[in-house]
UniProtKB/TrEMBL annotation:
It comes from Aphanizomenon flos-aquae WA102. InterPro entries: Sf6_terminase. It comes from the Bacteria. This is Terminase small subunit. Pfam families: Sf6_terminase.
Amino acid sequence: MEQGNPNPVGTAVASEQSIELPSWLSCPDPRPPKLPVESRQLLHTQYEQMFERVIEQVYRGRSLRDLLEDDYRVISYEDFLKWVKRDPMRHERFKEAQESRTEFIAGEILEIADAEDSIEDVQRSKLKIDTRKWLMGAWNKKRYGEVKQVEVAGSISITEALQQAQMRIVEAEVMDVTPRLEQ
């Protein structure tokens, strides 16, 4: 029986130790190259084409992340959101859609609450409802946001402070004018 070399030539040998590169040999990840103007224009055209559909779907309760993931085009969530926020009118329409989405989610909450759950499902349903309520408060602060009211009791009197200030003014105005006699 032949005993072969445990590490024959041409095979990859994996070491359990990782070898770190010296700092002078390693460099940070390079920045991604900027898109040419034509590519950016094409991308913005795609954004414009899908914006109306996005607004419509957000009104119906879908999230922007889900919409972009389901789209056949590969569109970056961050880039699309930046594009939306660049134009105040677009951004306002998007915020309106998010606020209106809360009405859709209110319907979902009622469905979850009215569903026939087993005892194990009750905690899950409670979590779903609490999450939706929190999102509704974040998206539509005017209607569903948490109202924090701070009551301040007590009185503050500034009469003593005003009297002290008045005394300082009077003292500053009084000048001791004693004639100096030159000899």
